[in-house]
Amino acid sequence: MKTRDFVVLAYGAFGGKISGKTNLQKKVYFLGVGLGMESDLGYRPHYYGPYSASVAEANSELRSMGYLSECSTSWGSDNRGFEIARYDYALTEDGSRLLGRKQLEYRDIWDKLIAFAEVMKSVGELNYWELSIAAKSYFILKSAGAQIGTKEIQNEALKLGWEVREEEIQKACEFLERVQLV
Fold first, then answer.
1. Which residues pair with 77 in a beta bridge?
2. How far apart are CA 17 and CA 91, in angstroms?
3. Which end of the chain is more exposed for a tag (fewer CB within 10 A), N or C?
């Protein structure tokens, strides 16, 4: 399966739209984890947690081919004067038709993907920051290969350049438990 096809299915699993690039990356990451495909999607450590250049490229391709619309919202400037913006994406009519074809082509994967997305939604929507911390925590837990505590997760996060507070990790681990990843 191409990463682009997985990304289209991810949009479908979340109602055809996803707000924010970080949110997109983390939702696709967790869907990949839920299906045992996160390594196929190219996820590696990055500033905001696990990141896949392949997912970002697939999203750009879908937009350039007219399957996604993009809307940016300015959030002002950071302390260096650079604009901060959030990019929201939604399937276009052509994108919805593509989704329908991919749902049929990848029926088994689609069924599993939509089931895991429903589990994610049922435990409560995390904002992009909370989802990012949950992804960081899961990435560290999986790399450790054993159960480790919040303090150990925090220490490992620092080694990866991720600064997170212990209470944020605790909330992330609660999410991971509720979606049955730990």
1. 83
2. 6
3. N
pLDDT, tens digit (0-9, with 9 covering 90-100), for 113-170: 999 999 999 987 788 889 999 999 999 999 888 788 899 999 999 998 899 999 999 9
Residue found by looking up tokens 């004067």 in the block = 81
Taking the model in full, what pTM does it have?
0.89
Our CA angle for 173, 158, 162, nearest 5°, is 70
Which segments of 43-165 does DSSP mark as H helices, in order? 53-64, 93-105, 107-122, 128-144, 150-159
Say how many CA atoms lie within 13 Å of 28 toward its Cβ. 33
Closest by CA position to 30, among listed 16, 49, 17: 49
Q: Is 134 exposed, middle or buried (0-12, 13-18, 19+ CB in 10 A)?
A: buried
Q: How far apart are CA 163 and CA 180, in angstroms?
A: 25
Give the strands of the sheet with 68-77, arranged side by side.
17-19, 83-91, 68-77
